[in-house]
Amino acid sequence: MIYIEYMEHDRSIPAELIKPHKEKSGWADDDVLSENQPLAVLGRTLRLGPHPPFLAIWQCKTFESLQEWESYFKARRTLHSAASQNAIRLCQAGCYSEVFSGPPIDGGIQYIEFFRHDVSHREEVVARHFSERAGRYENGVLNAVLCRMGPLGPDPGALAIWTFPRHADVEQIVFDRQWQQTLGIVRSGLYRKLNDETD
């Protein structure tokens, strides 16, 4: 299961404080979080994308882990320092199934497509469509396709994360109207890993 926090931050406080520093928190030695991993924190760049501008993406083993996780952070307060807790506002969150898994999110530019998904859509069909698209765009890498679990998350319900080396490489996917209609893509945005964004 993937858990995503959608966040905004106080611009008077450095945005890098949002980033979870697992290596500094002792998580590796803690049974509660040993199987829950931070995958990426992405920030909208050039103001191209929906609000809120930051996404913290976590891999979470089970729903039961969410309860353990909540109790852990209330008791230990180790997710963020006091400064970072003041720097961010968690606007909303969602739980997702990872219906397509590609290479880990790394450098470059992340192009995120937000598309419609509800219980009437079969995840295997979504996965097949994106598998067909995965090699379609020159220099583009499909990192993940995430579909909301039931109604547990914000609309439109699903997102696909791509990585491209340069802004110019994004043009082909931006103008692919055929797939945008087929998949019900309603919004997209440009993102970078935290501290590389220019929003």
Description of the structure:
This is NIPSNAP domain-containing protein. The chain has one domain (2-193): Alpha-Beta Plaits (2-Layer Sandwich), CATH 3.30.70. It is globular and about 45 Å long. 31% of the residues are buried. The chain has an 8-stranded antiparallel beta barrel. 21% of the residues lie in helices and 35% in strands. It has 199 residues and is an alpha+beta fold. The protein starts with a strand and ends in a 6-residue tail after the last strand. It has helices at 63-76, 82-87, 123-133, 171-174, 177-183, and strands at residues 2-9, 37-44, 54-59, 88-101, 109-116, 141-148, 157-164, 185-193.
Short description:
Helices cover 21% and strands 35% of the residues. It is an alpha+beta fold and 199 residues long. About 4% of the residues have low confidence.
